Amino acid sequence: MNYNDPLEPAMIITKVLSKSDIVGNVVLPKAEVMSVLTRMNVNDQDLLNGVEVQVDDIMEDDLYTVTLKVSGIDKPKYYFGTGWSTMKHSLDFSEGDVLKLYWSHLDNKFVILNFQYSVLPLMIPV
């Protein structure tokens, strides 16, 4: 997929990370996840057991594997379980940061849309 092309808004998940997201598993916004699920080949039982999905950081050329799960059917709570800890530490996420993901159904993976990086100061010769 060419990520310079316009992205489908319905395939974007945005989450401002809370302290509990950083300490434990990240709980994802229900409505946005349910929208993405329309393009994923998974069912409720798959999600109860956990589905491994890939999350691609195309800027750093890193690929993470996380487990997308749901707890409860009556009042579902969607979250990243296994693999989230590695991903959040690698990306140096902290409370208040924004996690923005795009579900690329053609590539069958999430792509990180918010990149955490720092810029080295410009060195000017004296």
TrEMBL record:
<keyword id="KW-0238">DNA-binding</keyword>
<dbReference type="GO" id="GO:0005634">
    <property type="term" value="C:nucleus"/>
</dbReference>
<dbReference type="InterPro" id="IPR051442">
    <property type="entry name" value="B3_domain"/>
</dbReference>
<dbReference type="GO" id="GO:0003677">
    <property type="term" value="F:DNA binding"/>
</dbReference>
<keyword id="KW-0804">Transcription</keyword>
<keyword id="KW-0805">Transcription regulation</keyword>
<protein>
    <recommendedName>
        <fullName>TF-B3 domain-containing protein</fullName>
    </recommendedName>
</protein>
<dbReference type="InterPro" id="IPR015300">
    <property type="entry name" value="DNA-bd_pseudobarrel_sf"/>
</dbReference>
<keyword id="KW-0539">Nucleus</keyword>
<dbReference type="InterPro" id="IPR003340">
    <property type="entry name" value="B3_DNA-bd"/>
</dbReference>
